[in-house]
Amino acid sequence: MTADTSTATKARRSLGSRLAEGVSGGLVRVFLIVVGLFWLVPTIGVLLSSLRTPEAIGADGWWHVFSKPSELTFASYADLLENGDITDSLVNTVLITVPATVLVVVIGSLAGYAFAWMEFPGRDWWFLGVVGLLVVPVQVALIPIAELFGEIGLFGSLLGVILFHVGFGLPFAVFLLRNFFAEIPRELLEAARLDGAGELRLFARVVMPLGGPAIASLGIFQFLWVWNDMLVALIFADSGNQPITVALQTQVRQFGNNVDVLAPGAFISMVVPLVVFFAFQRQFVSGVMAGAVK
Hints:
The protein is mostly helical. It has helices spanning 2-50, 54-59, 75-81, 84-117, 123-133, 138-152, 158-181, 186-194, 199-210, 212-228, 231-236, 244-254, 259-279, 281-289.
């Protein structure tokens, strides 16, 4: 009887192992591929709509292009290049996103290193203050900062939008990088100090290379947040400094049938974050998983 029970247990374990292998293998991959394709459907729809004429868009859905490939044309992109509001807004978006991302990464890295490895009065209390800023919603600060920027002459300018994004991006940046830098072995830093490395050289030559995955993850988060933002730009940027998100919203309000400009503009607004994410996805995954395993 004991032998029969042991045989049945082995059979059950064998069946469970086979099911686990099947679920963790092909089935999960197929499921993830299907989810990824569904996630890309809106982007594909906007792309195909941007390659159709306004008449074709008004007649039927974008999926009909598969049965009518002759409808595809780049005329909408030519119209987009002739629309000064859209092209200027694309330039403004780059002028806002790149500095806001670079400043947050640089300042956040320096502050994260200081909180992790440098001794100064009130370090722990200052860090608790940074953590507390993480829970402050953006909406709470819109009116006070708008009044402050109006008094110092920054309201409506690109610099005002950049500073707002930098201010609200730094708490998360400092929190993320401080925790990552704190996991660097102390012996490694002490060895570099014994070799005569100062704090700046130690930061540049040792900490920054080791913190590459976390820094890349932070850069991707910040870039996507600033690029896709509309609320802050809608309030702090005037009509001459508005980014692509606000420009597209303005086009919808003023020219409801202007789909030959809206479709390619929306696709460009969507595809740039996708390109950035896929270009740095390996560093992003490494940074997200860095704290999972010591």
